[in-house]
Amino acid sequence: MKKERNPRGIRESLFPASLFAIYLGVLFLMSGIHTGLIVFINRSELPDLVQVLIPMVYWGMVAVGLTLFTRSKIRSTYEEPLHKMAEATSRVAGGDFSVYVPTVHTQDRWDYLDVMIVDFNKMVEELGSIETLKTDFVSNVSHEMKTPIAIIKNYAELLRLESLTEEQKEEYARNIEDAAVRLSALISNILKLNKLENQRITPEVEAYDVCRQVCDCILQFENAWEEKEIELETDMEDSAFVEADESLLELVWNNLISNAVKFTPPGGTITVKQFSRQDTVTVSVSDTGCGMGAESMKYIFDKFYQADTSHSREGNGLGLALVKRVLELLDGGIRVESEPGKGSTFSVTLPAAAAVKQEKD
Ligand code: ADP
Q: Are the C-beta atoms of residues 85 and 123 closer than 8 Å to each other?
């Protein structure tokens, strides 16, 4: 039974049966020629020594030919690709992720060794991007830490001057305090994100009223939006129960509302809406702030990305990365609509609590 190709179209054997058929055919042919030679020698009147030598030389040549052919086949099929793989593996082990091993055959003739090479290349590419992410992360963290540390250092030096007025002392101390608060917010966000990403936080999912929670969060920012004379409108049901982890979701509302306040100019409007569907509850936070272009929107959930650099001192670019990770853990989703100069809407959808669903049915 010939079983040469599997359903994925990959050749199963590096030395297919056809190759052995060729070997057999060649050996039959050679032995046929040998018989012919013997007949020829018997009929000829060649000296005895020559008669012995002819078949010996003949089989010697056949043996050398077959050995060389087998050797070159093994070399091209096994040794060369494995040698390249070994070399590539040791370069990867040494930290070089730019390695690429070419396949032996073209894609339509791939065998398992080719598939192994393709998967190896993919693996190295993945490792390379993880390494880049790690390096980027470290350099971003260092960069974000440097600024507040430099501020603290400069103002601490200035505070030593004897000629300072009380107001100046007060201002410098406030600047130090602000920088320290920023530094601590950055570190606590990094720690939270790290825990969330390494699955060290197991969500404690329970049914609770998300409307109450969102209202509480809005109130926490009351001073901030009143200071900027921002109008805050709400359009929500009396209550809506979701199946989620309350303390994790608090991070989501806090980030979305604080961003809306941050990116909305004085006199603007923030609208928080909520509605329920059969299986889901949606909460959206809209603002009439600076908005974002399509290009920026692609990256806002990346760590440390800040599209609007005019507010970069008020954040660290980790908020939306945290929001996204929390929603992934809670089987929720987030959608963003934004237009530069007009404003943005972030809509979060969460699974509705089972009891509420049953009531509706
Ligand atoms: P940050 O700490 O800078 O607020 P986030 O991760 O919360 O970091 O947000 C990332 C970037 O997304 C922000 O720097 C900003 O450019 C953009 N962004 C987030 N929310 C809004 C919004 N409501 N309006 C305009 N841009 C926003």
A: no
Low-confidence ranges of the chain (pLDDT < 70): 1-9, 199-200, 309, 311-313, 355-361
Sign of CA dihedral 303, 242, 286, 181: negative
Q: Classify 77 as helix, strand or coil.
A: helix
Residue-wise pLDDT tens digits, 248-266:
999 999 999 999 999 999 9
Read off the pLDDT of residues 152-180 as tens digits, 9 standing for 90 and up: 999 999 999 888 899 999 999 999 999 99
User: Is 318 within 8 Å of 304 (Cβ atoms)?
Assistant: yes
Q: Which residues contact 113 (CB under 8 A, 6 or more apart)?
A: 14, 77, 78, 81, 82, 104
Q: Is the dihedral of CA 340, 344, 322, 250 positive or negative?
A: positive
Q: Which atom of ligand 1 is nearest to the CA of 312?
A: 3
How far apart are the C-alpha atoms of 347 and 336, rounded to whole Å? 6
Which pTM was predicted? 0.65
pLDDT tens across 283-303, in order? 999 999 999 999 999 999 988
Substitution candidate for ligand 1 out of 320, 337, 344 with most atoms within 8 A of CB: 320
Q: Which residues line ligand 1 (CB under 6 A)?
A: 255, 259-260, 263, 287, 289-292, 300, 305-308, 315-321, 344
Helices (H), the chain: 17-43, 48-74, 80-93, 112-159, 166-197, 210-220, 222-227, 246-263, 294-297, 319-329, 354-360
